[in-house]
Sequence to fold (316 residues):
Amino acid sequence: MKNILVTGAVGQIGSELTMELRKRFGNDNVVAGFHRTKPGDILKNSGPCEMVDCTNFEQVKDVVKKYNIDTIYHLAAILSAVAEAKPNLAWNVNINALYNVLEVAREHGCAVFTPSSIGAFGESTPLDNTPQDTIQRPSTMYGVTKVAGELLCDYYFKRFGVDTRGVRYPGIISNETLPGGGTTDYAVEIYYEAIKNKKYTCNLGKGTFLDMMYMPDAIKAAIDLMEADPAKLKHRNAFNVTAMSFDPEMIAASIKKIIPEFELEYDVDPVRQAIANSWPNSMDDSAAREEWGWKPEYDLEAMTKDMLDVLSKKIK
Ligand code: AKB
Fold:
């Protein structure tokens, strides 16, 4: 029997991951950990919810003890654009909170899933077909925390035997909860605006290629990795995973196939553009494919069709 804690359960990935985990492992066995934003009715009415500020060691420990937690999906994090605006907060949440989670996991024998990101790479990384093991010299606070987080998780596995696992997520596109303060957020907003106004002003420029993934695949990646046979894992933390790579023109073209009047304009945000320029254009995820059978289901066309179907019913 698994007893799972999801931190950041009200966030973009956490809200959908918690519900999928509840479906698979039972509602009562998955605790939704939230901090500033309170959970909505769906999370609240389907299983336990607990306030957990992961920067507070005691709070993490108390919840783990109360529910006899054996697996933590640690999703509480600050995204790239906010991290550049508030580097102090980013360090506290992305590193100090992770440290607390790992320490509690060490004391209580929990497995830990921690997402890293394409943000763990930088300008000196080979940006096309970015290898699994390569140069990582990010120039953003987000990237610094992501590389440090990857290393910390490796350390806890090697030094203390904590079952740490993780992926480097690309931009995640979803239709339930909006992302907050990332560089890849445009790829979510564009669908909402396509439905609402049939036009969108993009804050990243034409030709900015980035890896992306639809939420069902992002959730599958996290659960499949945590359920994988540990004997087969050579990397454990920070697996490159991707489903597609596109620039704003390509996502707009896929939307135009369904909404022909859709128009794309540009008003480039220099902060986000600089971050995006330092990230891979496309990653090589063959290690994840070989070690635990990673295979995404959605490409750009399939994702666009589903996003527009869902959002056109949701936004009236
Ligand atoms: C962000 O844009 O900050 C995130 C990420 C790719 O890590 N979506």
